[in-house]
Design a protein that fits this description.
Length: 273
């Protein structure tokens, strides 16, 4: 499938010391693969000095598109912006800091072709606390989806088209991908921990907690289930303390739970629609 083209989407925030090397190594990888490709860098730094340096470095590069966001909007929003501007039939997303090894890109491509899947995750061999926290949370709240939040991923064009159609109030790419299940196949491959020259990941425990809590709140059924249990508990308490008079609150309770459930369920619209 040598006629395929690829778009490599890289959200940028604080990677001036790694972005040049990353782009150079990506170019070398694709020169050996002989696929056509384009690198899309989404500047999410909201820093004129950084953006000026990026422009100076890549102004003569025909395979690089540089998009600047007006304000810092977060990694997932920046990645989604890149997907919307991707021209490749297949999209690869990766971090700016060399946490992901560009030389592993062929492994993602080979896995997609050999296993005939639409999404491929390149996970690290090392299993630190972030790995186990993420795996437990995703297994409990998203039993039918991939058990990873890795940002080194390959997305087929059909998946990208569905993702960019989603109308959401909170961007979390894995949450959107989970909502597409079971309309696609995915694979998970193990790779080296980090690339040579990489910086330490900036994901602290607090940042990871914020990401996962938003993922659960916006993309899982857990808030609705919790709400339903709470409402039933309140109704039982009213009946046990007020007797039959407690039943007078039943219509109000029912209306409240239906309204809240409708609100929660529509915060993220189905990307398939």
């Amino acid at each position: 499938m040598k006629n395929e083209s690829y778009a490599v989407v890289i959200p940028f925030y604080n990677g001036l010391d790694t972005i040049e090397e990353l782009v150079t190594r990506i170019a070398k990888v694709f020169s050996e693969l002989t696929y056509s490709y384009r690198v899309i860098i989404i500047d999410d730094s909201a820093d004129e000095t950084k953006h000026s340096k990026l422009q100076a470095w890549f102004k003569d590069s025909t395979n690089i598109s540089l998009i600047s966001l007006e304000r810092n909007s977060g990694q997932h929003f920046a990645t989604m912006r890149g997907l919307k501007n991707a021209e490749g039939s297949v999209v690869i997303t990766m971090d700016e800091d060399l946490q992901h090894n560009p030389e592993d890109i062929p492994k993602l491509i080979e896995t997609r072709l050999s296993e005939n899947v639409d999404v491929v995750y390149g996970n690290r061999l090392s299993k630190n606390w972030r790995f186990w926290v993420g795996k437990v949370i995703l297994t409990v709240f998203f039993p039918n989806g991939p058990k990873t939040t890795c940002s080194f991923r390959l997305l087929d064009e059909t998946i990208v088209r569905k993702l960019v159609k989603a109308d959401v109030t909170f961007y979390e790419l894995e949450g959107l991908i989970y909502k597409l299940q079971p309309s696609y196949g995915y694979a998970d491959i193990r790779l080296e921990t980090t690339a040579k020259g990489s910086r330490k990941s900036s994901y602290s425990l607090i940042k990871l907690y914020s990401l996962i809590s938003n993922l659960i709140a916006y993309y899982s059924w857990f808030p609705i289930i919790l709400l339903a249990v709470a409402v039933v508990g309140i109704q039982l308490w009213l009946v046990s303390n007020l007797g039959f008079q407690g039943l007078f609150f039943l219509p109000l309770t029912g209306f409240s739970v239906v309204t809240l459930m409708a609100y929660i369920s529509t915060r993220t619209r189905n990307p398939n629609s």
